[in-house]
Specification:
about 375 residues; seven-stranded mixed beta sheet; five-stranded mixed beta sheet; about 15% strand; binds pyridoxal-5'-phosphate
Length: about 375
């Protein structure tokens, strides 16, 4: 199947009892056994659920993996993949990651004996230098939230292999429409399905897809043991969203390219980070490993923090909101919102300035998005 067909059909079969074309919402906690030791493939929804299973099979097909496991949030997916590690293990992570991920690594998992080093994963030497004898995982986010840094995944896969590391990628920003990390040698790919995959600001969810049976088995065990599972209704909503993923992502990407070019040419804008701009430091890598540049960008104004704040307060069509990756355009101030808990000195070290504005370009008519930014920038 081609990708545009997979989003509509992969893993989805008409319901065997009724022929329903859309998988039913199996809103049940438990399943009646035929006799002791014989069930119909399901016993308890924390372990598995038919609606969730369709979503897991669909996502597995989209990432060209062999197994997928869904969770109740992107953070639950991130947490569950760290359960592949044990106390004493060390992780090398991209320095620019979603603030919730670094908060979890630094404030929760360090209490359980894991340790973390952060490196600019767009620089292979920095990654090599951060690896220690006890390093067990290389964790890469690409493009990153919020600086849109891009990492060469084939190169990272080589480093991971040389050092016998589990190689995990958070591909939330790219989606499988534009990037399939397993094809570049990653062992597992994580998504916040809250974002583009579901796409309509309608749910919180997460997923891990892998092509390694040992990792899949461990994650299924973690899923049923800890129980951070999405509801059947949320799985059903995610499946509906994914049907239009291919179409939506092309619209997000086309719109973001136009907005990025508009902002880069604007006299009040100091810099724009968007992988689709030739000025992006890793534009060539992005072009080589992604088939599109997705819908996220960030920018800084020459007027610094006051000017950025004025724009975020003045936009009318773009919603001032925490999330990203939905049909509605959303504008965010990372320093006080998504990355507020990253210590200011760490933010500065990774280049995340207090004046940075993040924009998730929706699928509205791009002329309306630009008109909105234009009127806001006029006052900044
Ligand atoms: N990964 C990335 C790149 C994110 O941007 C987010 C949330 O913003 C997450 C993971 C966490 O996902 P969730 O909010 O679904 O827990």
């Amino acid at each position: 199947m081609k990708f545009g067909t997979k989003v509509v059909h992969a893993g989805i079969r008409p319901d065997p009892t009724t022929g329903a074309i859309i998988p039913p919402i199996y809103a049940t906690s438990t399943y009646v056994l035929d006799e002791v030791g014989r069930d119909k493939g399901y016993d308890y929804t924390r372990s598995s659920n038919p609606t969730r299973q369709v979503l897991e099979e669909n996502l597995t097909a989209l990432e060209n993996g062999t197994g997928g496991v869904c969770f109740s949030s992107g953070m639950a997916a991130v947490d569950s993949m760290t359960k592949l590690l044990s106390a004493g293990d060390h992780v090398v992570s991209s320095d620019d990651v979603y603030g919730g991920v670094s908060r979890h690594f630094n404030k929760v998992l360090t209490r359980y004996g894991l340790s973390f080093s952060y490196a600019d994963t767009s620089d292979p030497d920095a990654v090599r230098q951060a690896i220690r004898p006890e390093t067990k995982m290389l964790w890469v986010e690409t493009p990153t939230n919020p600086l849109l840094k891009v990492t060469d995944l084939a190169l990272m896969a080589e480093i991971a292999k040389e050092n016998d590391l589990i190689f995990g990628v958070d591909s939330t920003f790219a989606t499988p429409v534009f990037l399939r990390p397993l094809e570049f040698g990653a062992d597992l790919v994580v998504h916040s399905t809250t974002k583009y995959l579901s796409g309509h600001n309608q749910l919180i969810g997460g997923a891990v897809v892998t092509n390694r049976q040992d990792i899949f088995d461990q994650l299924k065990f973690v899923q049923k043991t800890i129980g951070a599972v999405p509801s059947p209704f949320d799985c059903w909503l995610a499946l509906l969203g994914i049907k239009t993923l291919d179409l939506r992502m092309r619209a997000h990407s086309a719109g973001a390219q136009v907005v990025a070019e508009y902002l880069e040419a604007h006299p009040k804008v100091a810099r724009v980070a968007y992988p689709g701009l030739p000025s992006h430091p890793q534009h060539d890598i992005a072009k080589a490993q992604m088939s599109g540049f997705s819908g996220m960008l960030s920018f800084e104004l020459k007027g610094g923090i006051p000017a950025g704040t004025a724009v975020m307060n003045k936009v009318k069509l773009c919603a001032l909101a925490e999330s990203l990756g939905a049909v509605e355009s959303m504008i965010t101030h990372p320093a006080t919102m998504t990355h507020a808990e990253v210590p200011p000195e760490d933010r500065r070290a990774r280049g995340l300035s207090d004046g940075l504005v993040r924009l998730s370009v929706g699928i509205e008519d791009v002329e309306d998005i630009i008109a909105d930014l234009d009127q806001a920038l006029a006052t900044a």
